[in-house]
Request: fold
Amino acid sequence: MGCDAAGVARAVRAAAELVTAHRDELVRLDQAIGDADHGENLKRGFGFVLAALDQSTPDTPGAVLKLVATTLISKVGGAAGPLYGTAFLRAATAVGAASELTPDLVSVALQAALDGVVARGKAEVGDKTMVDALTPAVEAARGSTVAEVLTAAAAAAEAGAESTIPLTARKGRASYLGERSAGHLDPGARSTSLMLRAFAEAAS
Amino acid sequence: MKKIINDPADVVVEALRGLAAAHPDLLRVTEDPAVVARADAPRAGKVAIVSGGGSGHEPLHGGFVGPGMLDAACPGAVFTSPTPDQVQAAVSQVDGGAGVLLLVKNYTGDVLNFETAAELAAADGVEVRSVVIDDDVAVQDSLYTAGRRGVGATVLVEKIVGAAAEAGADLDTCARLARAVVAGARSMGIALTAPTVPHVGEPSFTLGEDEMEVGIGIHGEPGRRREPLPGAEGVVAALLEPILSDLPFAAGDEVLLFTNSMGGTPLLELYLAHGIAERVLAERGITVTRRLVGPYITSLEMQGMSLTLLRLDDELTRLWDAPVQTAALRWGR
Reply:
């Protein structure tokens, strides 16, 4: 695919569809160790993202990412709204006014997204959060095409999400459970891996 | 799931319309973004007190909007913190020029969204302070968790700070009082059943007929541990002991005892438990001088209860006794 504004908008739409299709799974994961709202909130938030993309067509990849960010921040609430909103906002800033995303820019944007999530949420690897999916994704995000970069990132994010299962949560609502949070896949790590998978497939 | 609802997606907004219809003398509701504000806001020269959080904890927070308590509340989706837009809209509706105090329960989402809102409001030139409420002793090790949750003390902070603001206290004083209440209050809760979130449609967890979940929050998240359900004496002991040893409360203390239903526990049982708690505290030499008993910070239809103890001094007692006119708390004139 082309990685111009239209291509990035298509990738965002693909992420919205995949997250929405997994709404029930994310609710179930959150029900086990949180408050059962993650799937519903992301479905709601990405519904507003789709509506925003239908209304206006930003003319750069960065503007598309910024529209996603502001929509998620203003419409979702919870922890997911500001955290994913910050991730998309930092990615938007990182790609600047570029008219097309290069493999390097995608790597830089993912790193910026991770830095933003860590700055806002103060989580580290091993805390059983979306950082456990996003950190390995950033480390793996290398390749000669955008598709290669995102495919590597998505695979690493999926492995990273799986790695949260035995962990005891130290951030977010699951941390209130203490050791009882172990044995469950973290819903935020799962939704991060879903979004990266959707981006990778859209780019391929 | 059996609930008196239409589309689960419309539960919050439809409930807000009902709240507005029930209390036109006290409050007004805007829907997009959702804000419950005092009918007579903004009050020129008065510090505005704004709180908010996920819905499903009624009467918190909308039921506490009115003279002597909150100027505005921002209701999020069920169990989901409000967005920065909502908080910013609330601030602009009620700012009377003397500053705005945001009362925030300590949950990751609430803190992040209120933090962002505070930055936005400050950029608009509004003087904003935030106080985070974290009174739940069930969460022990704050280095390895998101920190203690804001639970029962929230009601007490909103009442006491609301009274101070109504009496003309400035923003610094309101913030100091909020921190003083948080510092002197501790809470603990148990559940007998789980709540059913409307958009989920099934209980958040399942408990055996003979089990209780100890150390629950207010969002249907499981607690710290599961135990056989003892009699009422055992339940009250499981709640009081960790509260008393945490602050710690000591003989000679004067306290407010807040016995709260999580929504599904009837007043018959709640008063029974309250009576036991009063007796146990008296035996410890702790004097209960003020009480609040009822469903004030709930978790949908969850059966269960929480106890909150607040150490009182003359200033806090006077502010607790001051008049309040809200949907859920009314006394004095």
